[in-house]
Design goal:
Helices cover 54% and strands 11% of the residues. By secondary structure, it is of the alpha/beta class. The radius of gyration is 15 Å and the shape is globular. The chain starts with 5 loop residues before the first strand and ends in a 5-residue tail after the last helix.
Length: 171
């Protein structure tokens, strides 16, 4: 199998970055986050791209970043929350070891405060988060090799659950 050892998907604020870094450390591989790639490549925040150019422009940049990372990276890769909206991206995830980190809206509120730094949640965040998840949950589940709930768990517990779900041995 070529590509990343593990790909993490899930909604914003679920802990993909935190768990991804811990997973990479425990597996002895590199960690990469496509959101970080976008910010570095564009020289501005994701929120700024959304505001200045709109969601379609951001999604095009995101798709290119994901395609590049899937081709280049062989460690743990975290994808932005909306990256699975792209059909080609979902196709490329087939055959990969993909973990969907899930959480409910109450957990999302606790973790992110559903704050304005999240451009898709700027107005009525709880309602918008629920709507986003209704639209995306089946896409996350569709690409996932394993689903790991994160509600009420520490990052360490989630990391261990991912290792267990994928039956991966630590370095």
């Amino acid at each position: 199998m070529s590509g990343p050892l593990v790909v993490l998907v899930g909604p914003m604020g679920v802990g993909k970055s935190t768990v991804g870094q811990q997973l990479a450390d425990r597996l002895g591989v590199a960690y990469r986050d496509t959101d970080d790639d976008i910010v570095a490549g564009q020289g501005r925040t994701i929120a700024d791209i959304f505001v200045e150019e709109g969601e379609p422009a951001f999604r095009a940049v995101e798709k290119a970043a994901v395609l590049r990372a899937l081709a280049e990276h062989d460690g743990v890769l975290a994808l932005g929350g909306g990256s699975i909206l792209d059909e080609e991206t979902r196709g490329l995830l087939a055959g990969q070891r993909v973990v969907y980190l899930s959480m409910d809206v109450e957990e999302a509120v606790k973790r992110t405060g559903l704050n304005a730094a999240r451009p898709l949640l700027a107005v009525n965040p709880r309602k918008q988060w629920r709507e986003l998840m209704e639209a995306r949950r089946h896409l996350y589940e569709g690409v996932a090799t394993a689903v790991v709930p994160t509600d009420g768990r520490t990052p360490e517990e989630v990391t261990q659950a991912v290792l267990d779900a994928l039956e991966l041995k630590q370095a």
